[in-house]
Specification:
Blueprint lengths: L1 H17 L7 E5 L7 E9 L5 E8 L9 E8 L10 E4 L5 E10 L9 E9 L3 H5 L5 E8 L10 E2 L1 H4 L12 E6 L5 E2 L9 E9 L9 E8 L7 E2 L8 E8 L5 E7 L6 E7 L8 E9 L6 E6 L4 E8 L6 E8 L8 E19 L2 E8 L3 E8 H4 L3
Amino acid sequence: MKRGLSILLFCILFVQCKETRPRNAIPLFENGQGAYACYRIPAIIKSSDGSLLAFAEGRTNNCADFGDVDILLRRSSDGGATWSLPKVVASFHNLQAGNPAPVVDRLDPNYPEGRIFLFYNTGDVSEQELRLGKGTREVWYKTSVDHGRSWSKGINITPQVHFNGSASQAEKDWRTHATTPGHALQFEKGKYKGRLYIPANHSQGPPQENFNEYRAYGFYSDDHGGSWNVSPDVDIPSSNEAIGVELSNGTLMLNIREQSGRSHLRLIALSTSGGSSWEKTYFDPALISPVCQSSLLPFVSNQDTLLIYSGPDSREKRERMSLKISPDQGKTWSHTLLIDPGAAAYSDMVQIDPNHLGLLYEKASDGIVFQSISSNRLLLK
């Protein structure tokens, strides 16, 4: 009898230990499932027809950043309850296509139902080799006019947005390059209404200690992708992966990873010129972070407009995936909502409707999961 009870107790504890995923989290890209050993780098948007589009890197052989990497897409037409099978939307032979940065252009009169842009990078060597001046990193985009069901051929915009010997303006010696990762944005109001803006980063010149040759920046288009301009660098050493939002007053806010890990805080850059210049940069003491990507999203409910931040709420480890909520456009953060207490890393967010936020994030070694979160939780109701 005692032996039976011991076995039962062991089984209960084992199941509890294994069940670490939040109950309402849907596994979208499970490591080791399908044609890929590992899935990383989530990005998510909502198309003009209401469909959710979840992107991720499919890494064929292992979880390393460089290798045989494709960009995959899953679609949902019911607010994230069910999803299509994964589909390859960008690849680069048996090399690397990564850093998905999607955005919907809702303001092009030639596409009244909206046109989706997917920006991404291709690479033929690792990031470290690029830092040493070897190999090539390029910037591409594809478009979809049917809400992500089909995609155009890739268009290479490297000469307009990334400056080195293999592209243009070799004297700048930009080496690495990464689009955001996460969703890009379109300005919806004011002087820069319609501008597509893609946060990015690069390294310039030979490697420096603590990755101090890295700089965040961005590139943008005022003619719906016909031509591209480049923001100046955010002049903070080791500023790296960035995500951007347009605040309610039209200001562009970038939320940036500090690659060196010196402060364990998120770096903020503000521009009142649509990204043409940076008026203010500062580290936000409320947004602690390990060296990891994070996401940022304006959320418009029936009652209020909030700025939502997602990322690991830890200084040292990629763990405690949390949402932080600001009622005043990022000046202060009123409360923190812990989503997942375990290991978690990159994330992205989408507004599903006025009552639900969608969170797509890397869950431990499991892969990438999706969670729908009620606005009542964001509003502490």
